[in-house]
Automatic annotation (TrEMBL):
Transmembrane segments: none annotated. It comes from the Eukaryota. It comes from Candida maltosa (strain Xu316) (Yeast). This is Haloacid dehalogenase-like hydrolase. Gene3D superfamilies: HAD superfamily/HAD-like, Haloacid dehalogenase-like hydrolase. GO terms for cellular component: nucleus.
Length: 335
């Protein structure tokens, strides 16, 4: 049961489980116990991994809008924003199926930029030998690596700085290609993730580099193993980081399936960032209940009763599952 009264001091809702199979079957209801209140904060993490797109930064306008603005206003290409909006995801999926992982390993593409060039040619039905067409491609490819295209959420810098000051290691775990490095540089975020001047970043893990993508366990395993060797035992020869280490690894992202569920299924702790309160956790829909997140409680019951508006709290569903509405709440969790 959830206690009805709150102490004056800020309290967090946590779930305690001693079942050994919680990591391997984290969403089975029989593997969970009772939600209780506690004033204890989470222990200092081994590291916190962050998703990028939608978590740390987002487009200033939708991607189709930006494609339209540049193609129409700078190059006079007559393709409506409605057409771009409808066709972009189709062409993107087509490219990913034909040339997965942004074309890595395919003779046709020496680098990921060439993969995007091919996508733009297909989207606008361009003549790949026309100089104007190639100029548009290069303009768009460059544009989407700069702060012209993206904005950083206002809760990002204070959070990264605060966690860094607390001595918590920060890394990136993203389904991105190598252009993410240039984006992070442009947005002045690269410095938080252990990068040298030559773009060698020991704290940035991309699906393009590893060949594995979220939500696969292999994606998270690679990060955890790298960090375990760096922090605990550089001579470790195992294929997977020990479970004890995984139990204090955290991943933050805006995707329920790729970030939140992917991390927990890999034995990590998952934090869903839900800035718009759009997930089931902040509605009366109880869809995730069959995955053991809510037990018998309604999502709205987990929100601070002292607050007049329900969408004003973080939700700690379990000792390895948290939903937050702004990144600065991480400073409360790991204070």
């Amino acid at each position: 049961m959830i206690r009805s009264s709150f102490a004056a001091r800020r309290q967090f809702i946590r779930m305690v489980s001693t079942k050994s199979n919680l990591i391997s079957r984290p969403f089975d209801i029989e593997n969970t116990q009772i939600i209780r209140e506690t004033v204890n904060k989470f222990p200092r993490p081994n590291f916190i991994s962050f998703d990028l797109f939608g978590t740390l930064y987002d487009p200033k306008k939708s991607v189709p809008e930006q494609y339209y603005d540049i193609a129409h206003h700078e190059f006079g290409i007559d393709k409506s924003i409605e057409e771009i909006n409808a066709e972009f995801p189709i062409v993107y999926d087509e490219m990913m199926k034909q040339y997965p992982n942004y074309g890595k390993g395919f003779d046709k593409f020496d680098n990921c930029d060439q993969w995007w060039l091919e996508l733009i040619i297909r989207l606008f039905k361009l003549d790949r030998h026309d100089e104007k067409a190639l100029a548009l491609c290069h303009r768009l490819i460059h544009h989407f690596t700069t702060d012209e295209a993206y904005f950083v959420y206002d809760d990002v810098i204070p959070t990264l700085q605060g966690l860094e000051e607390r001595g918590i290691k920060l890394v990136v775990g993203s389904n991105s290609d190598l252009r993410a490095l240039t984006i992070l540089e442009s947005l002045k975020l690269k410095k938080y993730f252990h990068c040298s001047e030559h773009f060698h970043c020991s704290g940035i893990f991309l699906s393009y580099s590893s060949g594995d993508a979220k939500p696969t366990k292999e994606f998270f395993d690679r990060i955890a193993l790298t960090e375990y060797k760096a922090q605990i035992n550089e001579h470790f020869r195992g294929k997977h980081a020990p479970g004890q280490f995984l139990a204090n690894c955290w991943h933050v992202g805006d995707s329920y399936s790729n970030d939140f569920i992917g991390a927990v299924r890999a034995g990590w702790n998952g934090i869903l960032i839900d800035r718009n309160y759009s997930s089931d956790f902040f509605s009366k829909v109880k869809k995730p209940q069959n995955e053991g997140c809510f037990l018998d409680a309604k999502p709205e019951d987990l929100i601070d009763k002292d607050k007049k508006k329900k969408n004003k709290d973080m939700i700690i569903l379990a000792n390895n599952r948290v939903v937050i509405t702004k990144l600065t709440q991480l400073l409360d969790l790991f204070g």
